[in-house]
Amino acid sequence: MSQVLSFNRPLPERYSLDAYKKHFAEFQEFQARAFHSQPINALVKARARFVDEVLLQLWQYCDLAKDKSISLLAVGGYGRGELHPYSDIDLLLLVEKRPGSAQHEAIGRFITLLWDLRLEVGHSVRTLKETLSLGKEDITIATNLLEMRLLTGNKQLFNELHEAAMSESFWTSQAFFQAKRHEQQQRHAQYHGTAYNLEPNLKANPGGLRDIQTIGWVAKKHFNTRTMRELVAYQYLTEDEYQELMECEAYLWQMRFALHLEAGRNENRILFDYQPAAAERLGFGADGKASVERMMKRFFRTVQRVSELNEMLLQHFEGSILNSQQKVKVSQLDDYFELHGHLIKASDNAVFAKRDNLLRLFWHIANNSNITGVHSTTIRLIRQVRRRLMGDLQDYEACRQLFLALLRHPRGMDKAITLMHRYGILAAYLPQWRNIEGQMQFDLFHAYTVDEHTHRLLKNLYKYSLPEHDSEFPLCSDIVKKMEKPELLYLAGIFHDIAKGRGGDHSELGAMDVREFAKLHKLSDFDSKLIAWLVENHLLMSVTAQRRDIHDPQVVAEFAEKVRDETRLNYLYCLTLADIRATNDNLWNDWKGSLLRELFLATQKAFRRGLEKPMDLRDLIRENQAEALPLLIKQSFIESEILQLWSRIKADYFARYSPKQIVWHTEHILRHKDPNEPLVLVSKAPIKGGTQVFVYTRDQAGLFARMVAALDSKKVNIYDAQIMTNKDGFAMDTFVVLEQNGEAVTSPSRQQSIKKALEQFIAGKPDLSRQKPRLSRQMRQFSVPPKVVFLPGNTKHRTMLEIAALDTPGLLCDLGQVFQQCGVNIHAAKITTIGERAEDFFLISNAADDALTAEQQSELKRSLIAQLSQQTEG
């Protein structure tokens, strides 16, 4: 019947390690070839049978077959008769009594032979009493015994164990269910309750193979069955649900089998290292990222289906099977729905024949805070009607009215939107949403699929309206609470990434989609234009804050000109913060928050002053000096001494730093006695969300490269740099740094260590040509073609340079050395890391302190590309 079954080469008659290894290798090659043509269940079962044969022969070889006081049992996945290429082989050697020396020696020899064959064997040697005693204490052992299988040995001993393990005195169905549910909850918590991660674990993640097994385990224990198929007869699941579970399991098995073959070991994480090869082996093509995205899209949709079935069937098991006799308080919500305890339930099986009831269900969830979820019977009805839908729910006027009502409800973005997303009703309503379900982005920046990212963004927006989150982002909370139409913000959130994966500019396409939505839902022209503008420009504020010098009044004026009014600014600021925080949990930090807040306040100020009357740079310089001077005089500094120092500093300095920072720098410079020694200051407390490192020293060739190398040696990330040389040849440079986890550097010992490293590197003691750290495993999977672009600047004496490259270790130090070799001065740097991609902006000049000529730009570009290419190859 199956080609897999035709592997009939017999094991060597006499044991030889080399012969057995060769036999295993031949079987492995055979299965790898058969992977493309055979059903996956045939492959995993064939491997289990193959291992059975090996174990039985080795059992005889070790003279254990003569021993009638022992049984060899397969447990766990092997007990189910399922093995992937490098799966663990879990064995229980069940003995009548503790082994004597001869039996102990034979068992030891048997296990050693398995290890010699490099099999991943998990084994235990226990008596019946020990097994049951440990099983009562450990749910994992108890679960393994559910699926034990006798390979050889004492059958009566096995039967006694099986009968005891299935009895209620061993584990009651109720206790077993509660233990397995708790175990699942703990496992899900390790993955933050979602499978939408960059490198998900297809076995342990929510919606993975473990969730399918948990569905079966609790029911197999209760009904005393061995297979999932048997549970249909007990009405635990329908025939369709059984078939769907088997389909999901088959795809996850295929991925797992392919991963094992690619990794050459028991690997269940879908690591970047194996994703392209696994995608090709699974038939998704060999076109790199596109193949991976197709494979992962199907994976994420599969685990979503498993998660839904898992939730529904476990709830059904607990409520309808275990607690079928318990009474639940029932109250009527309307003609269509009732409240069963804290779960909403359809009054009858025909409720969803009236399509708007699919939306009304979630409106009730928003409107009634006592509702915690949907009843399992109603989830089953939703699943059935979802498959029979002809067209989109938004085609119905009644559905459109309810959808808008849900968006406008104060709690619409709480449980209601989450459950709409979970049960596929958001996709059934918006056709564009179906395109982004499970849409992965192959990079280190986006930690979630597009639909999950958007869902998290909506939850972030909702938090702004909750009093308990006022202190988290007070400015956003204040803005949202004053908004007349927060639903417009939610709509911008829903559509901001909805066109991803369709080709073209997703912002422009999303804006077109939301205009069509607004027209269909009869929104006003003003509201339609506002939402479309937000979708089209949702990256504007983030890009400006992180890549431009927001202390430059011209940058703020240009941004304000694009935003045009304070209403748009308010909406855009809230959307931007929610978007960044929903992209990747590890990428948000207080420094980014500070940049966005500064840009918001500066733009708001520009609007309120009137764009035709922007603050003059000279006014800002005079204002900052006037505020800083009396603070310094209070510290007993002489005014003439202060002004003499300030006269040597370029005017730009006083526009870029706050009065408090000017005071901090000035007092330490005036007290610094030896001009030949560098002055290094590290802020004790965070300033605007980051740790500021200030360096005052004689300027020298390669100073920037040495400073960034010093900071790199202390394993801090640089986010911003202001590089300035005074009229007297002294450098006044400031770096904003954060720890690897995105937090400011607060440890006094760490601060002192950074200070000391900078002093040593500036003095030229370490060798900058030291061997650099290797790229991480994840980073090696990515390629970012180096890009060097010269941009039009705001001043004719400076050149603005953008560099994009792979974020390799020591990147800034290497760039600094190239600048030095080409005679380029750095005046400011904006350092941005987006996943695996570094996007850095520099304000530079030539040796004559002027903008670079065309020839100098060409030479610098050649040198930078050569260095970046060499770095990537290395």
From TrEMBL:
Reaction catalysis annotation: [protein-PII]-L-tyrosine + UTP = [protein-PII]-uridylyl-L-tyrosine + diphosphate; guanosine 3',5'-bis(diphosphate) + H2O = GDP + diphosphate + H(+); [protein-PII]-uridylyl-L-tyrosine + H2O = [protein-PII]-L-tyrosine + UMP + H(+)
GO terms for MF: [protein-PII] uridylyltransferase activity; guanosine-3',5'-bis(diphosphate) 3'-diphosphatase activity; phosphoric diester hydrolase activity
Cofactor names: Mg(2+)
Protein name in UniProt: Bifunctional uridylyltransferase/uridylyl-removing enzyme
Annotated ACT domain residues: 692-778, 800-874
Region (Uridylyltransferase): 1-332
Gene Ontology biological process: regulation of nitrogen utilization
Domain HD: 450-572
Keywords per UniProt: Hydrolase, Magnesium, Multifunctional enzyme, Nucleotidyltransferase, Repeat, Transferase
Activity control note: Uridylyltransferase (UTase) activity is inhibited by glutamine, while glutamine activates uridylyl-removing (UR) activity.
SUPFAM superfamilies attached to this UniProt entry: ACT-like, HD-domain/PDEase-like, Nucleotidyltransferase, Nucleotidyltransferase substrate binding subunit/domain
Source organism of the structure: Alishewanella aestuarii B11
Record EC number: 2.7.7.59, 3.1.4.-
Region (Uridylyl-removing): 333-691
Listed InterPro entries: ACT-like_dom_sf (IPR045865), ACT_dom (IPR002912), HD/PDEase_dom (IPR003607), HD_domain (IPR006674), NT_sf (IPR043519), PII_UdlTrfase/GS_AdlTrfase (IPR013546), Polymerase_NTP_transf_dom (IPR002934), UTase/UR (IPR010043)
Similarity annotation: Belongs to the GlnD family.
UniProt entry tagged with the keyword GTP-binding: no
